[in-house]
Amino acid sequence: MDTMRDRFVPVVSRLLDEDPRVAVVLAVIGGDAFAEAHRRHPDRVVDVGIREQLLVGAAAGLALTGFRPVVHTFASFLVERPFEQVKLDLGHQDVGAVLVSAAASFDWPAGGYTHMAPGDVALLDTLDGWTVHVPGHPDEAEALLRHAVAAGDDKVYVRLSVQSNGRGLPVDGQRFLAVREGRSGVVVAVGPVLDAVLAATEGLDVTVLYATTVRPFDAAALRRAAGAAGTDVVLVEPYLAGTSTAAANDALSDVPHRVLGLGVGRRELRRYGRVEEHVAAHGLDARSLRERIAGFVGGGVAAARR
């Protein structure tokens, strides 16, 4: 199966052909993949070199002149390194772009901590007006990329990962999907952690919501699910643990509730290892998730034993 990033290049290349407003801005990474698109559209595929601040600044300049820029590099170089430009050149000037990241939290362990960005969504949360898509499958990545580019002049972040669920689901760029129903609590699975969450909650009497658009946070879906399934909520996110706990607490602010945020821990893992080893070390494998979810959600353990 192809990866989300494999799908990214042909999708955006087609969008360049279809929409004269679309421009692509790169900082070396991904340049070879867009070589053919650059030959067809030399004025709308721009490589600024290894200059990530300029990457975002140039995108903002294009947006100011009416283009819809799609900006791509590793998450650590797209959100963290040029954060001032994201904040000022896009946010303060009130112009939009589609930031499309690769490498996610720890997709390339051999790259070391410089190429990891588990705090990217939390960092964008400090800014106003961002839509954040976290696809869990290449089909979803394609749908959300098209949705992001078509979203007027909004500020959109699309977080691509090599981690993927076994199959894609129909996503609309707005709402959470209910993929399992129960009565003892709610588990929100974000993007590529869905398969692990479904395996972890097999036999547990819980509702599972699937989230591929996490900002804006679908408070209405969580409220509906919590009303039917109790008010124990577990958030399982493929980035910094607890990133969405405030959003969940706000959604349920008028009812008694408990929220557990699971995700990538703050402690830096200094051995490269493999992606699967990082998943397990952060407790995001199915076995670890089952233990933590069942130990938190009311009635979960009892339901699992029946």
Average pLDDT figure: 95
Structure summary, number of beta strands: 12
Query: What is the strand arrangement across the widest sheet?
Result: 2-1-3-4-6-5-10
Q: Please give the largest β-sheet.
A: 7 strands, mixed
Unreliable residue stretches = 300-306
Distance between the termini: 38 Å
Taken from the alpha-carbon principal axes, the silhouette is globular
What is the rounded Rg?
A: 19 Å
CATH topology type of the largest domain:
Rossmann fold
CATH architectural name of the largest domain:
3-Layer(aba) Sandwich
User: Number of helical segments?
Assistant: 13
Helix content: 25-40%
CATH superfamily of the largest domain: Thiamin diphosphate (ThDP)-binding fold, Pyr/PP domains
**Assembly context of the chains:** single chain
- Structural class from helices and strands? alpha/beta
Task: Tell me the number of structural domains.
Answer: 2
Percent of residues in beta strands? 15-25%
Protein name: Transketolase
InterPro entries: PDH/Transketolase, THDP-binding, Transketo_C/PFOR_II, Transketolase-like_Pyr-bd
Domain Transketolase-like pyrimidine-binding: 2-168
